[in-house]
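Table 4 source record.
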Amino acid sequence: MSSSTTVGTAERPLRVAVIGSGPAGVYAADILTKSEAVKSGELTVSIDLFDRYPAPYGLIRYGVAPDHPRIKGIVNALHKVLDRGDIRFFGNVEYGTDITIDDLRSHYDAVIFATGAIKDADLNIPGIELDGSYGGADFVSWYDGHPDVSREWPLNAKEVAVIGNGNVALDVARVLSKHADDLLVTEIPENVYKGLKASPVTDVHIFGRRGPAQVKFTPLELRELSHSKDVDIVLYAEDFEFDEASDDAIQSNNQIKTMVGTLTNWIAEQPEDLSELKASRRLHLHFLHSPLEIVEDPENPGHVGGMRFERTELDGTGNARGTGEIIEYPVQAVYRAIGYFGSALPDVEFDHKRGVVVNDGGRVLDVDGQHVPGLYATGWIKRGPVGLIGHTKGDALETVTYLLADRENLPVAAEPAEDAVVSLLESRDVRFTSWEGWLALDEHEKSLGAEATAAGGSHGVAVERERVKVVPRDHMVKISRGGVQASV
């Protein structure tokens, strides 16, 4: 650090840019503002939060099912942080094009990358390229009204396979099987409602490679499956296998014990003759199935016609091994939901095998494994797409702790004035949005919900709609920047 410049004073705060306004980015900014050095008056900070989307909250807005009960609590917590006024929000700004690493290094003393992971992890099996084979993350983006994906989705399959045993797989399967009218109480966009309403689906199958004690979803997500009206949950006795590791996990982990208890209760209450199930749709939970191949429909070349699996068995350690038994299911669509994968960032070393920025505890490393002064990472782009919100907070704390420990050696920004970055974006005609702009968009979406409610519900269904999400990016930007736009 230059001896002629004192950074972290009231006259010259430590300037930090955070790239990504999902939980990881907001938590990092919040933790930094609440650090002991700041609270004691030893340090002052100035934080700008950038996001490629016009609205904040990242994967909470564009990666969680709209009927998820925990969304509101998480959004409220993030809102409180950003609404304090000590963290600036710049939406609709793309890192790498609208603002580059050189720009950031010129205007900020430190940069924290919190860009998350939005792509689907690959499933390398034959037939994955067939029409009707989709990524679960792409489908989530569609039903969450992501501004950069098509507003149309081909929902023409009666029988669907969902590959994966995590929360995203459950979300995808639940939305596919749920009746569209039951989603009107959520912020579901209009185009998504219409697509789901026209879906001919009757059966959605979820497949996991291991047993009931090895699933990766959580009790809350599992219980949500049973809340769908006119949807029967179907389980199979041959899939309920427990080895020594399973028994140990059930005894030592209350979460696993709860989920296994829920599943065994469901199958015990299920009629032996499945034809007695009367719902118009069925959600099948399969365990001990390892995906082998997506089968082409011989009557419709190039399209999905089935899914082939090898039955597996537990090996005593909780892992699965093949049995040689092959089983095939007739399905017309397959959704892989086996995890998210991070995207490379311009001018930052990236681990393409793990899908993360190369880092050591949050300190970004160069090609030689040396810390790049002033660059940091947090959240899924730092550690991979694992863990829940609690992990994200701890992860952000680790990164911020390193940043504060390094602050005497950070490269000093040449143009640290707060208005300099605003001038830069304006000079490039970047139509950036602000926190005040988000509040305007937020109110607009709520007003659309109120209009639907006042009209007696939506589509003949009398429900109270808290909001209707605006989807097109240009509409979001126009509303946020003071325009009037009623379209969703």
